[in-house]
Amino acid sequence: MSAPSTPNPAQQFDSILGASSFVFLLYYRGHWCPFCIAHLKELVAISDEIKAAGGAVVAATAEAPPELLQKVRSSTGFTDTVIVDPENLLAKELKSRGLVDVAITDSQVYRLRGYKHGMAQPALLVLKSDGTALQRWAIVPALMNLGGATDRPILAEVWEKAQKQLRGEVAVTTESVTNGYTTTGVRHLLGQKLFGR
User: Fold this and answer.
1) pLDDT of residue 78
2) What is the largest CA-CA distance in the chain?
3) Domains in the chain, ordered, with CATH?
């Protein structure tokens, strides 16, 4: 008798989506990235509201070793599903569906850090179970954002926009799905570190 096969990350995501009204998905780089840890803490702060509205809260990363995921959980308090995708299969599938284009940084530096197939950069997607994208964002790594580290949307603001779309108060248009985010930077991270904000 063979062991049951583990679903690939895209199948895992689809399964979660099929069991929820919508999914709030956040990509992070790894346990070593203080901006990612801060972003995940923002997600933790709104996760109860998302789940109360019928949504699923999901994080995704290309960082594979289980002990590193435990470090992320310990430092952020994130207890919801994490899709570990070292081959970036989910990122590629989301791009092929036209939902969000998660940047994959494939360099020798990241390969040495254990990202054999490249590192998925920060991104987010709020997706209804019918396949309608409510919110989406993906970093374009550049010198000005420290290679993809900074300039992330404030997640409470993203969630507020998604709620308005879920209630039908705002139409789902290209502009309402991708524009108008306030972004964070080094200053925001320092505020969290120093003042717990």
Assistant:
1) 98
2) 56
3) 9-195 (3.40.30.10)
